[in-house]
Every structure is written in C-alpha cells, then in structure tokens.
What we know:
This protein is an alpha/beta fold. The protein folds into 2 domains: 7-135, MutS, DNA mismatch repair protein, domain I (3-Layer(aba) Sandwich), CATH 3.40.1170; 153-289, MutS, connector domain (Nucleotidyltransferase, domain 5, 2-Layer Sandwich). The chain is built from 8 helices and 12 strands. The strands form 2 sheets. It has a 6-stranded mixed sheet, sandwiched between helices. A hairpin with a 4-residue loop joins strand 8 (163-170) and strand 9.
Amino acid sequence: MFTPRDYNSSPGCVNLAKAAGHRYSEGSPMSKDNSLTPMMEQYFRIKGLHRDALLFFRLGDFYEMFYDDAKVAAPILDIALTSRQKVPMCGVPYHAVGSYLPKLLRQGHKVAICEQVEDPKAAKGVVRREVIKVLTPGTAVEFETDDAKESKFIVSLALEEDGWGMALLDLAAGEIRTLEGAWAEIKVLADEIFKSAPKEILYAEGTEEALQRVLAPSGLTGAALSPAEGWLFDPPQAGRVVLEHFGARSLAGFGLDDKRLAVAAAGALIAYVKKVRQDSLSLVHRISYL
C-alpha cells in the first residue's frame, strides 16, 4: 500500500492547503485563481487538456493523482486514498506503474501519463511536465490482459441518417478492417461488433442516439466510449487522412473508392490513434474492406 508524500515539506512544491477548496470540474477556476501555487496551476492546466482521462502526474519517484481522479483510481488499484489539507490523493511508484495501469484499462478508463521532461536540478521554477501519451483500452497493446492471447480491438463508427460505416483496428496486428451499410443492415454491424468485442468505441459527438441503436442488438457491454469531434468523420477529410497515412494516391487500391462512410470511420480512427498514441501509429500498415 502506498500513500502520497507530503510535498509541502519541500521547497517549491505544491501547497495543497491553498488548493483544498478547488475540485476539478467544467466550471473550475483552475489556474485563474491566484491562491494556487505554480505547480497546482500546472496540474490544472494539464488536467484541463485531458478531462476524460485519469492523470498520472509525475512527482519525483511517484505518479500522483488528485481530487476525483484519486477517488476513482484508489479502490480499483487497491491503494490508500489519503488527503493533504482535505485534498484527496493517491499515488503509485513510477518503477511499478506497469502493474497498475492494466487494472484501470480493464475497467474502461483512459490514463494520461504526465512526465517530468526536464531535470529537476536544472529547472528554474516549476519542473516542466507534459503528457507523453494517453493510454486507452483499445490502444494500450503493450499491456497484457487476463488472457494474453486476447486481441484488443478499437472500433470507429461513422453514423449518419442514411447508413453507417465501421473501421475496426487491432493495433497489435496493424490492420484496419472496414465495412459500411444501410440501417436496414444493422444486424451485420451488430454481429461484427459482437464478434470482435472491442475494448473501445470511437464515435462522433452528437450521434449518441444512433450509437445506442447499434449497441443494443450487439449485446456489447463494458467497452469504453470515446466521443470525438464530428469533423474527424467528414468523408473528404477522413479520405485525406487515410491516403496520407498509407502513402497512397487513390482509395481504389484498398477497395474504398466508393465506400464513403467506411472511409469516414477509418480516417477518424487513424486521426484518433495519432492523437493519443502517435508512438504506435506506425504499426498500422494495412487497410481493407470486408
């Protein structure tokens, strides 16, 4: 069992007493409040860029979580939830983080890894920190699940009034498989989702009602839902993303030249992986139409 360190004892570290009244939320004053120390301003700024993920904030030899992130993570990780000046905290040692992350991913959580990106001894003021990667249930292929042979799929769904498009990615295999159809063929999509049992579902914001129409007959439960900006699913934009990634001049060679919604789903998926796991995007080297 690990408990957070008292950072108030070190010069230049966070004074949690000043931040005790601030809970992370959409309306949080965050760094606009002058009572926050520079380190907590940094924390809230970074957390604000990753609202849908648990933020593993590197402090020395530990990754720390604060506020609601700590309340969510502590029971899943079976670590102590403590507090400093009424601020909920929990932490795990950086050298053992690989044994903790799969537990969160299996529960459908995303995790943003925020590292110290400069030598603390050379830092002038607060040590510079950046999120170096975001682990999601469908893209964290470096961590084994309970079944080491189990594939980790992420599915992208382009849902419009006249039909649907699907792109299914197994990042470890490096292949995107696509499909599209009319709503009258919804069972075909539901069956594909049931067979692949994706860990994560990417879809456009504002299409939640259509998404439930897809998921209800599939019987899928427990997948992480990842809404994304609608413009990522714009077919012309998505087509350019696909062509650029595979270094091609035409979609015809992939069997996608007339598959508007399949292309929309595939392009959005590639853009999403590039955003959260750019280090793994090079693994994607094949695309096909089912």
